[in-house]
Amino acid sequence: MFPSFFSLFIFLLSSISIPALASHRHIISIPSTVLRPASFAWDPAAQHFVVGYSSGPIISSISDAGVAETIVSDELISSVSSIFVDNRRRRLLVAIRNPNTLTAYDLRSPRPHRRIFSSSLAASPGGIGLDPATGFVFVTGSDTGVIWRVDLEGIVTDFSRSAIYGDEGLVGVAHVRKGFLLVVQEKTGRVFKVDEENGAAKEVIGRNGTPALEAQGVAMMADGTAVIAGGRGVRMLQSRDGWAEAAITGEVKVGEVKKFKAVTVRDGKRAYVLVTPEKEEEGDNLRSRIEEVEWEEEGDLLWLMVLVGFGLAYFLYWRFQMRQLVSNMNKKRA
């Protein structure tokens, strides 16, 4: 009986998904010739990542094999703060600092892709979100609490200004299919739910900690989970009440010499982060990478602890029974 149970126990244990122990995580090393990546996005039609930089007039594609190719070359680009692919309209949306603009490029045009429009912004941009149905683009102000909305013609309007944002700027923004935006604030770690129609904002209450501390970006998975990355942490955030409250349900940390710079979602279910050296002079061995996130989820660890406890209890019971059996056999022999 014990061997049969032990085999079953081992099978159940091996069936638990424990991301931290997996060996198939996808890691792409960005070529050393590519300097200071600042943001990235997944292009589902072209099946590659698109990367923008803190300096330089180009935007590159990065393949799964780590091959970089220039897809945009534009003197207007000085420093990219955020990048986004509008796959339905095949537009590449780029938030640029100095000058502060939202610029769109036609991904259907030959490389280097042509510029569709470039719209001036009143302050330095942070993140980009998109309503795929309307094509409206939402851009946060990184130095001030404002969200701009940009229509298909490139016309910019103030969409959301709220006292709830305080004196701090906004960074990442993601569109949620239920008709609102999730916006994160780096310095305070706060998350806001912003109505897509009128721009009214409410703070999302964190149930088990500060949800967006050091956040640089936010992206949504197909199941409604938000992935927030920045500094030395990337978090999985979930809500059961329409984002009045939310809880951190998974978290991954990075080493002291690296930091998470941006986050994107591939195929709706696989989160990737841009990992860069904390200091630019750290050297080639710490060059930037694109890494798939492997979650250390509380549910998996809980099941592991339950199974290990159950297995230990059964083993002690079996040991006790064997000891009793040996004792009884010795008595009969005596």
Keywords:
334 residues, mainly beta, Neuraminidase, eight-stranded mixed beta sheet, four-stranded antiparallel beta sheet, 2 helices, 24 strands, 15% helix, 42% strand
Short note summarizing the structure:
This protein is mostly beta strands and 334 residues long. It contains two helices and 24 strands. The strands form five sheets. Strands 14-15-16-17-21-20-19-18 form an eight-stranded mixed sheet, with no helix packed on it. A four-stranded antiparallel sheet has the order 1-24-23-22, with no helix packed on it.
Plain-language structure description:
This is SMP-30/Gluconolactonase/LRE-like region domain-containing protein. It comes from Dendrobium catenatum. The chain crosses the membrane at residues 301-320. InterPro entries: Sensory_adhesion_molecule, WD40/YVTN_repeat-like_dom_sf. Residues 1-22 form the signal peptide. The protein is mainly beta. It has two domains: 1-18 and 300-334; 23-295, Neuraminidase. It has two helices and 24 strands. The chain has helices at residues 2-15, 298-333; strands at residues 27-29, 37-43, 48-53, 58-62, 68-73, 79-86, 91-97, 101-106, 115-120, 125-130, 137-141, 146-150, 156-161, 173-176, 180-184, 191-195, 201-206, 217-220, 226-230, 233-238, 245-253, 258-266, 270-277, 289-292. Strands 14-15-16-17-21-20-19-18 form an eight-stranded mixed sheet, with no helix packed on it. Strand 11 (137-141) and strand 12 form a beta hairpin. Helix 1 (2-15) packs antiparallel against helix 2 (298-333). The longest helix has 36 residues, at 298-333. Residues 11-23 and 298-304 have low confidence and may be disordered.
